[in-house]
Amino acid sequence: MNKINLLDDELINKISAGEVVERPMSIVKELVENSIDADSKNITIEIIDGGIPYIKVLDDGCGMNEIDAVLAFGRHATSKIKSTDDLFNIGTLGFRGEALASIAAISKVLLKTKEENSLYGTLINVEGGKILKKAKCGCEKGCSVEVKDVFYNTPARRKFLKRPSTEAMYITDMVAKIALSRPDISFKYIKDKRMEFMTSGNNSVNEVILRLYGDELYSNLIETEYNDEYMNIKIFLCKPSYTRGNRNMQILFVNGRFVKNKIYTTAVEEAYKTLIPVNRYPVVITYLNIDPKNIDVNVHPTKLEVKFSDEKEIFDSIYKSIKNALNRSNLIPAIRHDMFTYTDIPENKVEEKSNPKQLNIIEEESTNKIIEVYPNNKSFISNVKESSEKAYFDYNDVNALKTENTHIENFNTLPDDHDDYKIVGVIFSTYIVVEKNDMIYLVDQHAAHERILYEKFMNMYNNVQGKQTTIPILINIEPGDDVIINENIELFNKLGYKFESFGNNSIILREVPVVLGQPESRQLFIDIIDKLKRDDFNKDINLKEETIIMMACKKAVKAMDSLSKEEISSLFNDLKVTENPYTCPHGRPVIVSIKKYELEKMFKRIM
Q1: Burial profile 237-275: b = 16 or more Cβ within 10 angstroms, e = fewer
Q2: Which residues lie closer than 8 Å to 489 by C-beta, 6 or more apart?
Q3: Cα–Cα distances in Å, from 88 out to 85, 258, 293?
Q4: What local confidence, expressed as pLDDT, does residue 135 receive?
Q5: Which intervals hold domain DNA mismatch repair protein S5 (predicted)?
Q6: What is the distance between the alpha carbons of residues 326 and 329, in angstroms, rounded to a whole number?
Q7: Which DSSP state fits 359?
Q8: pLDDT computed for residue 8 by the predictor
Q9: Cα 178 to the center of its chain, rounded Å
Q10: Could you tell me if 297 and 89 are in contact, meaning their C-beta atoms sit under 8 angstroms apart?
Q11: Cα separation of 257 and 94, whole Å?
């Protein structure tokens, strides 16, 4: 008996449909992309109960004649490509010719379509991949596709769908991303007979972002652009103070197509490294336009993946664009009056005369002109003269100055190089209070010192001096650790370590980094070994940064360490000349600002 069977067309269609149609969201994506390829200017998407029982996509595109409408339901039927060469020059969203056939194979589809100069349209009813009805009908120019009972004939697939509310969430997210990809098209999205959102189609990305994601995200936007002879990149990124708990808002559009790409994700997160906390993710929306010959979109049936011919160039361009935009921007979080909750205070009946949007920005900041307002990365200081010969203050003895004091100390004498800054004092033995004009800045002394030391140690890397230990430091290691240590001797030497084997799974440290004491150096050495065992530390650059972050953290002054006037002054001056004075290497804020106007509103001095 033969073991090899030829599958019938019905089974083949269902298998193919499984690759293209994963869930109702896939159907919406494919239908909307067809509408975009048809040069539509207005697209309406309507779903009920997560799209499982009902999906409708209506557009005003070019439409189809009767012959094309029938052919569109055939497998591998498309108007987008004709030859193999076309695969390397794809300018449309669709090209595989599988969408309608796959959708029709696992649902009930009603298509109405009409070309612009036709007297009548075409109606086609398809169930389970079979055309049940074909007739003339009256309809507007364009296409209307209704999809009902998704996976009605493949119950095994249907039972793996999530709850309708969850499926609706997937669809909403995808529609929002598609609307964001084409601001020149007006999208209307209706969920369960209720309007969710509508975009104007006036080709303004800023307006679409504001409509979809709200004022808080919009007010934190920074805009930047990169151009060369090979590509154009336009990026809308948020300040590090505005982050998300997942990567869903790291959005990439390549030639108008929403895609997912690891090179892009890595470039974004490397650019934000040390600016945001661990397990928080930046918001970055990127439009990349590139010659279609330099990309491959024929990677997966869902067309959500893309490959670049020169991945390094893409990485460098996106990384540098984001990094430069962040460096040009003021990243100090502003504390606003509306962040506070008051109780037992009479309702204010005085009409607010000022512009409420001004409460969301700090001094002289314009949300849509941030780059122009802040031309360099030290926008919160002025007239600061940098010097490569500047010496760092020695904080070695600050631990001996610990105290329980939490009151504000007033300093009347300030160094001449403070310009118009006034260091008011310290609160809770942790936060330095600085006044300038009508702004108050609160500086976290530990985070500030961490940032100072991190940048200092990064500049010193490859030449960190070691000092001989007073007493040799014995470290017991686990079996197999000796191999890891010997493979990374160069790394340890660069960080100031010299050591030798002592037998019986132990080593002796002869020299340790001069910037650390012996107990800290011993623990850091052990921590480095632990990190070298982890797969995600297989790159020298990551290990170097993580190790130096640990060094800076161990060496920095701590909260509740009481500093003298001179130490505070030196710390503040050192912070002013760092490359990034806004966050510590772990991404926590170093400095926050409060405007005098906000304080006066809190105390009801102005209404």
Answers
A1: bbbbbbbeeeeebbbbbbbbbbbebebbbebbbbbbebb
A2: none
A3: 6, 18, 5
A4: 93
A5: 209-327
A6: 5
A7: G
A8: 61
A9: 17
A10: no
A11: 10
Do 289 and 232 contact (CB within 8 A), yes or no?
A: yes
Is residue 203 classed exposed, middle or buried when 0-12, 13-18 and 19+ CB atoms within 10 A define those classes? exposed
- 0.90 exceeded by the pTM? no
List of residues 6+ apart from 128 with CB closer than 8 A: 10, 104, 105, 106, 108, 153
Answer positive or negative: Cα dihedral of 132, 33, 290, 186. Answer: positive
- In degrees and rounded to multiples of 5, residue 34 shows phi and psi of -60, -40
| Helical (H) or strand (E) element with 592 | strand 591-595
Residues 442, 592: contact at Cβ < 8 Å? yes
Domains, the chain, in order of start with CATH, read 9-84+97-198 (3.30.565.10), 214-328 (3.30.230.10), 465-514+518-558 (3.30.1370.100)
DSSP state letter for 113: E
In the chain the first and final C-alpha atoms are separated, in Å, by: 90
Backbone φ and ψ of 294, nearest 5°: -95, 10
What is the distance between the alpha carbons of residues 367 and 238, in angstroms, rounded to a whole number? 11
**Scanning the structure block, which residue is given the tokens 């105390």?**
603
With vertex at residue 497, the alpha carbon angle to CA 493 and CA 503, rounded to the nearest 5 degrees, is: 105
Helix (H, G, I), strand (E, B) or coil at 12: helix
Tokens standing for 69?
């409408």
- Residue 141 contacts residue 115 (beta carbons within 8 Å): yes
DSSP bridge pairs for 295: 308
- Report d(CA 571, CA 58) in Å as an integer: 62
Place of tokens 């449909």: 17
What is d(CA 579, CA 378) in angstroms, rounded to the nearest whole number?
8
Separation of alpha carbons 334 and 439, rounded Å: 10
Q: Which two tokens stand for residue 49?
A: 């109960």
Show the low-confidence residues of the chain (pLDDT under 50): 18, 81, 341-418, 535-539
The residues with which 506 forms a beta bridge, in sequence order, are 476
Question: How many of the other CB atoms lie within 10 Å of CB of 426?
Answer: 22
Tell me which H or E stretch contains 434.
strand 431-436
Which pLDDT score, from 0 to 100, does residue 377 have? 34
Q: For the beta carbon of residue 477, count every other beta carbon within 10 angstroms.
A: 18
- State which amino acid sits at residue 336: R
Measured torsion, CA atoms of residues 573, 579, 583, 586, in degrees rounded to the nearest 10: -120
CA angle 355, 219, 176 (to 5 degrees): 125
Q: How far apart are CA 76 and CA 572, in angstroms?
A: 66
Integer Cα distance of 180 and 112 in angstroms: 27
Question: How many angstroms separate the CA atoms of 179 and 477, rounded?
Answer: 56
For residue 361, the SS3 value is: coil
pLDDT the model gives residue 353: 39
Are 511 and 501 contacting, i.e. CB atoms less than 8 angstroms apart? no
**Sole residue written with tokens 């001095």:** 605
pLDDT at 132 (0 to 100):
93
Give 355's contacts (C-beta < 8 A, 6+ positions apart).
Answer: none
The secondary structure element, H or E, covering residue 262 is helix 262-271
Cα(183)–Cα(441) distance, rounded to whole angstroms? 39
Task: Give the pLDDT confidence score for residue 390 in this predicted structure.
Answer: 34
Give me 366's structure tokens: 């314009």
pLDDT of 547? 72
